[in-house]
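Hey,
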Amino acid sequence: MTPRRSIGPLSGTTNNVNYNPVNGTFEFRGVAPGSYQIFATTQPELDAAIGPNAAPRTVAELLDVLIFSRPTAQAAVEVSASDVENLILTLSPGISIPGRLRVDGQELAAIGGFENIHIMLESAGAGEHMQLPRPMAPDGTFSLDNVPAGEYRLRVNYPQPTIYVRAAFLNSVDVLHQPLVVSNTPPGTLEITLSSKAGQVDGNVLNEQSQPIAGIQAVLIPDRFRDRFGGYKTAVTDPKGHFVFRSIAPGEYKIFAWEAIEDFAYFDPDFLRSYEDRGKLVSISESSRQTVDVNIITAR
C-alpha cells in the first residue's frame, strides 16, 4: 500500500497488513488520511523454482516464475476520517505489451552496451511499483509482460552519457510526456526512439563569497513535466565544487543546490514552489554543452 502522491520514487510504502490466507481477507491499520494505491500479488513458488530438488532452469524460466506469470491486482483508495471496508481485489494475469527500441540515425547494435538499456513501467500512482521487461533482443524488440491495468510512467535507463529518449508512442499516443494507460485490451506496439544528441551541463556550486563548495548535491529539475521523476538528475560537487549533468533531453530546466535538504524533498511541488526564484535557469538543445555557476541555497 503506497501513497498515490509519494515524495520521490521510492517512498511511503505501508506494509503493516494483516492477511488471512484462508479466506483472503486483509486489513491495514493505522493508515493516515490520504490517497493510496493498494497492490496485491501471489507469492512466488520459490521451492519449486530454486529449491534443492528443483529441476535446472534458465534465467528466462526463473523470471517467468518469479515475475512475469504472477497474477496481480491493484486499487485506488481514498482514506478519510472513517474506515474503508469491503474492498475487493481480484487477482488476474496482466497483458503483454510488445515494444521496439530504435536510435535516430544508427543501428541499435552500434551503441556500446545497448544490452544494458532497461525499459520499465513505473506506476503513476506509486513510484516503487515497477514492471520489468524481458531481456531486449539485438534488434531492439522487447516485451513488457503481465502488466496489470492502470496508469504508468515510462522509464528508460541507459548507461551512455550522450543518449536521451526523444519519443515514445503507444497506439499513436505520446507516452513520454503523459501516463501510459493500460486496460484489459491488448495494445499495439510500444515504439521508443532514442537520440545520441543529449545535452550536458557542467557547473560549480558557489557560496555567498562566490567560492566553490565541495560535497553539495546539485539537482536538475525540468521546468515542465515535473511529475516525471525520470527527468530529474542529481550530482554531488567534487573537491573543487564542480558537478556534471549528462544525458539531458532538450528543454528548459532549473538547477538548485541546497545547503541542507531532506531526501527527495525536491519532488514535492509545495516545497519547490518556495524556491523557484532561487534556481538557475538553463535551456538545453541537442548536443549542447553549457557551463553555469549555481548559488547555494542556505539552510533556513
